Structures are given as structure tokens and as C-alpha cells.
Amino acid sequence: MQVFYEKAPFLEFVKDSQRLGQYRALVPTMGALHRGHTSLMDLARSHVDSGPHGYADGLVGTSIFVNPTQFGPNEDLDAYPRTLDADLEACERAGVDFVFAPTRPEEVYPEDPSVTVCEDTLSLRHCGAKRPGHFDGVCLVVAKLFHLFQAQAAVFGEKDFQQLAVIRRMVRDLDFPIEILSGATVREEDGLALSSRNTYLSAEHRALAPQIYAELKSCRECWDAGKYPSWQAAEEGLADRLRAIPEASLDYAHLVDSATLASPSGSQLPPEKYRFLVAVRFGKTRLIDNL
Ligand code: PAF
Questions:
Q1: For 91, which of 35, 96, 102, 218 could close a Cys bridge (C-beta 3.0–4.6 Å)?
Q2: Are 72 and 53 in contact (CB under 8 A)?
């Protein structure tokens, strides 16, 4: 596995790979890797090994970069877990071929950037309402990574469902020549969705956090059993269940169209087209999940 900490040698590597006619699949991360990330690397690996679009040879690449532009002024940029050595071992074990791990933001951002990327529809509700500017920062760094890696495919987790939808929209609207693949959420045995931020939870909150997924599942069961007269009742029912979790404070519980992230407009809701998105805080730690 080749690891690059600086942009210039990394760009040379990408040029060589292009000259060799290799396919590249990118798994962007901010490090603190867990099984959720490595499942995305596995997905990238099997996609590349399936010889997509007739490429004979292909590489899986990962970026490890805690992107400052997606953190708000009062968010956890400084405290965000940085575990580079363990992350590189995890990448190696997952069969990643190359890693771009810029250790300084200046490797990614010029001193005086004046161009940005702004998604102004899907980003505004849900997590975006509580984290103004967050998805613009995500779009900006992801757009830059797409350019730097010149990848034909990129893999994102469904756990960050709004992020996935926003990136798909950016790719559509700005004509990025890249295929976006998504990997299912990986969970602990008790149902808690894996997240680098789970390490912030106190023992008490960690024990309560699996109730988020349990409530999502019971809400879906009630929905399937026809117990809600309307989608609004299902949304309110889920919000009530989440508010009832001890110590939890509800940010939002929304039923949305999976592509537009908008609320349903009619009463007919084909289940494959809609998702519940939720965000719940335990103390200062904000957890998101969806089903
Ligand atoms: O999902 C993440 O870890 C980040 O938002 C991403 C996509 C790597 C951009 O920094």
C-alpha cells in the first residue's frame, strides 16, 4: 500500500495510474476508521475487481483528512479523533492500494481560497438546519478529492444519508464524471450505527444509544402494520418515541423522499422510496441514523 502525505507526489502517482489505464475507486474518510469504513473499502474492492466498464486493472484509494471547512466554529474539529497509524493499518488490512493522508490543511486548501461549492436545497433541512455551512464544506472537499484522485467511482456510507444525497446532487448538477456507490450502515450487535463519534459517549449514554435504532425499527413495524393514519402521524410517533429515551434530546425525526430529502407530498408512500432520518443528542454528542 502506498501512502502520500503531500499533494505533489500524490498527483504524480495519479498521473502514472492514468497512464497505465487503471480504474480508481475512492473511499473518502476523515480517519478514526471503524468497520463502517472498512465495509466501504470492501465494496470498493469488489467493484474494482469486477472489472467495471472493461478496465483490466484497478486500484482502491482512500483519503484520510479531517476537513476543517465542514466543521462549524463551535464544533469538534480540534477534538475529532485522529488515529493515523491505526487507520493506515486498517486500510492495509482492507486491501486498499493507496492512501492520500494530507497531514496539513495547506496540502488541500490554498492560503487564500475564493471559490466554493454550495448546495442550497437538500442541505438546508435535517442536519443542515443545525449545522449551517457543513454540507458546503463537505461538497468543497469532496469535489477537490474527486479532482485529485481522478477516480471513476467513489463510495459513501448510507449512515450519512443526507451527505450521500447532497453528493449525488453535486455530481448530477456539476457533471462530475464519477459513479457514486453507497454502502449499507454497519451496526454494533446492539443496533447502534457505527460512528467515529460513538467514542465520545459516556458509558451511560452508550447503553441508551441503541434505543435510537430500536425506535426506528418499531416505527417501521407500526407503519407496515398500518397503525398510522398518515405519514405525519408516523413522523410524530417516531419523534415521541425518541424524545422518551432517557437522557436523549431530539434534534429531528423526518420522513423524507430518499432522492430529494423533501417531505412526502401525497399519502401513497412506496417504502423503497422513503426514509426516516433522525438525529438525537446525548450530552454534547449528536448521533444520526436512518431507516
Ligand atoms: O463522511 C465523511 O467522513 C466526510 O464528510 C467526508 C465525506 C470524508 C468529507 O470530509
A1: 96
A2: no
Give yes or no for a contact between 182 and 162, defined as CB atoms under 8 angstroms apart: no
- The set of residues, in sequence order, having a beta carbon less than 8 Å from that of 194 and lying 6+ positions away, is 34, 35, 36, 159, 185, 186, 187, 188
- Confirm or reject: Cβ of 141 under 6 Å from ligand 1: yes
List every span in the chain annotated with CATH 3.30.1300.10: 196-290
Pinpoint the residues of the chain covered by CATH 3.40.50.620: 2-183
Q: Does domain 2-183 have CATH number 3.40.50.620?
A: yes
Residues 183 and 172 sit within 8 Å (Cβ to Cβ) = no
| Contact criterion met (CB below 8 Å) for 183 and 157 | yes
- pLDDT of 268: 66
**Within its chain, how far is the Cα of 4 from the centroid?**
23
**Cα of 71 to ligand 1 centre, how many Å?**
11
Out of 64-68, 182-186, 257-261, pick the least confident: 257-261
Question: How far does the centroid of ligand 1 lie from the alpha carbon of residue 72, in Å?
Answer: 14
211 lines ligand 1 (CB under 6 A): no
> At 271, is the pLDDT very low, low, confident or very high (cuts 50, 70, 90)?
low
CA of 125 to the centre of ligand 1 (A): 19
Catalytic positions, please? 37
pTM above 0.85, yes or no: yes
What class does CATH assign to 196-290?
alpha beta
